[in-house]
Amino acid sequence: MTMSTRPRIRNVGILAHVDAGKTTLTEAMLHVSGSIAEAGRVDKGTSHSDGLDVERRRGISVRASSLSFDWREVHFQLIDTPGHVDFSAEVERSLRVLDGAVLVISAVDGIQTQTETIWRALEARGLPVCIFLNKTDSVGADAAAVVAQLKAEFSPDLVWLNRAVGEGDGGVALIDLDDAEWAEVIEAVAATDEPLLDQWLAHDGDLEAEQWQPVLADAVADRRLFPVVCGAAKSGLGVEAVLDAIVRYLPDAPAAVDAPLSAVVFRLDHDAKLGRVAGVRLFAGKIRTRDRLDNVTAARQEQVTQIKRMRLGRYEDSPELGAGDIGFLCGLPEVRIGDILGDPSAVPGGYTLSAPLLSVQVTPDDAADFAPLAAALQQLSSEDPHLDFRWFQDERELHVRIMGTVQTEILTEILQTRFGLGAQFSAATVIYKETPATAGEGAESYTMPKPCWAIVRFELEPALRDSGISYRSQVGKSDIDPKYQNEIANRIAHALEQGPKGWEVTDLSITLAEGCHHLLHSRPGDFKLATDMAILKGLVATETKLLEPMLAFRIRAPEQYIGKVTGDVVGMRGSFEPATIDSGQFTLTGRVPLATSMEYAIRLSSVTGGRGALFTSFDGYQDCPPEQGVERAYKGISPLDRAKYILWWRGAITDSFR
């Protein structure tokens, strides 16, 4: 594909709750477009978008996959994302590179936990959405009821583009809307555009498709309307209709090829032959082989050695990428996910779909594999920064952060199949945080043994919840040279990684109140060392307290279970608003600690005979009651052990964590 013959491009994500059928829809799109002779099957491990061995074996998407094909003279760059909440990071990264999305919803199950989370994320990013109501051929399917649910809980501005008849059995069929139904669609479209509304009124509601379809496209692009297509992806029903809807109503990728380069790295892969491969989305400009690119995030240049495109799970050579393209670059060994290449102004901001709230320790099956296991986890962490791999050499411990237990099962398989390493994961621990209970101060005078000189005193104060860290200096440049003050400011985040109770410290204000340097003896590293020791002393003085992660919840269940459910919430130290009751169902909303509610979805299903639904989302941290929570020992060499810490700093002892 050369720049002179570039077609229109659609960068579209396929998103859904697990088992709603998004990978099946992706396979059906490839088949209908003529890209493959036969659609792959998730249950048989033959789907083209599930490229990892573990995905094929388990029938679950772990990584977002990039697939391309052409339809109606439009080039589709499709991102099929995982549906399981444990792999939300993949969805999060994919959102940044999309121009629109197809949200797949089961016509049997309707809105599910991850459906709601994804909808909020699409709303926050302002992405246009086409809804595909899948599984209309399954027992219990009721597309009209699901659309009513969507209108009540997501948006009233949904418009049907087709209908399903004979739902719930193999004889389901799709039919075009009748005249009255099309009239409703055209009226909804006309209501979004005053000139079209005038024409609609003047012609008594009789408008041609070429009059209202462009207006519908504008309304979809602006999220004022959301088209709905019914179908059954497994049999190919409705797939052509949803492809046509994407072509007609979702927006083109920008085509500013002649503008300065603007791109973002959204994924990293490791290929046995190519090594580290960076997935990029170009928002403007172009990239050619051998180009040197400005990595503005890392403040360095990168040189591209090869350019690849992905087609049916295989890399294909490409001489260049242009605005709107999604491609893969080789020769960037240090690039990280989220790095911006070139002009950052055209790159949309990131969106945090979820954050890992659990930590696990990883132990090799064979003690001799400790170092290789650490290297493997480091590589996986570079591909998924949410893992946040930590190696504590003194304790011989390897730790990663996870979203849930399914993720550890997948990691176990990946370590075995990709790296040939057997490993065990400990039970998950909730990730707590610390914050000052009172004001305090910490000082350090590091002047011996010379050459060294760094004297600092910090004042620490509690800050508002969820406010993070603020830092300021009231020390003049004649007392501490600006170059040393920069070292102090840059070291603050590191000094707060572990507090006296062993957790990251947040929600505090730090002031550098006093200090001095020495013209002959001071070195930049002296102030890093002094900052670590002084900050931890100050935190001890503030008598830090634990914060625990909270979940906002919404529970829907039959009315007769309201007493049991509210009792459960109270038992989990949760709080809730008065329940609402409608048509024999109650809805309860509130907040509950993660630590007490991790298994509640299973209990709710048991208590309600499978008729209860739990929706949760992270809702910040709050004070952990006394006697609750988990304190842990400082990992590595503690700055409170002054003599040993100085020896480590001077290289007399080692600790690879730092």
Essential attributes:
658 residues; alpha+beta; Rossmann fold; Elongation Factor Tu (Ef-tu), domain 3; 5 domains; seven-stranded mixed beta sheet
The number of helical elements comes to 17
The main sheet comes to: 7 strands, mixed
Task: Give the radius of gyration.
Answer: 28 Å
Largest beta sheet: what is the strand line-up? 2-3-1-4-5-9-6
Quick rundown:
Helix content is 28%, strand content 30%. By secondary structure, the chain is of the alpha+beta class. The strands form 8 sheets. It has a 7-stranded mixed sheet with strand order 2-3-1-4-5-9-6, with helices on both faces. A 6-stranded antiparallel sheet has the order 16-15-18-11-10-19, covered by helices on one side. Strands 25, 30, 31, 32, 33 and 34 form a 6-stranded antiparallel sheet that branches.
Tell me the layout of helices and strands.
Layout: E1 8-16, H1 22-32, H2 53-58, E2 65-71, E3 74-80, H3 88-95, E4 100-106, H4 113-125, E5 129-134, H5 143-153, E6 158-160, E7 163-165, E8 173-175, H6 179-190, H7 194-202, H8 209-221, E9 226-230, H9 239-249, E10 262-271, E11 275-284, E12 286-288, E13 292-295, E14 300-303, E15 306-311, E16 314-317, E17 320-322, E18 326-330, E19 340-342, E20 358-364, H10 370-383, E21 390-392, E22 397-402, H11 405-419, E23 423-425, E24 429-430, E25 433-435, E26 440-446, E27 454-462, E28 469-473, H12 482-495, E29 508-516, H13 524-541, E30 545-558, H14 562-571, E31 575-576, E32 580-582, E33 585-593, H15 594-597, H16 600-607, E34 613-623, H17 642-649
Parallel strand pairs: 1-3, 1-4, 4-5, 5-9, 6-9, 28-29
Antiparallel strand pairs: 2-3, 7-8, 10-11, 10-19, 11-18, 12-17, 13-14, 15-16, 15-18, 20-22, 20-23, 20-24, 21-22, 25-30, 26-27, 27-29, 30-33, 30-34, 31-33, 32-33
Helix pairs in contact: 6-7, 12-13
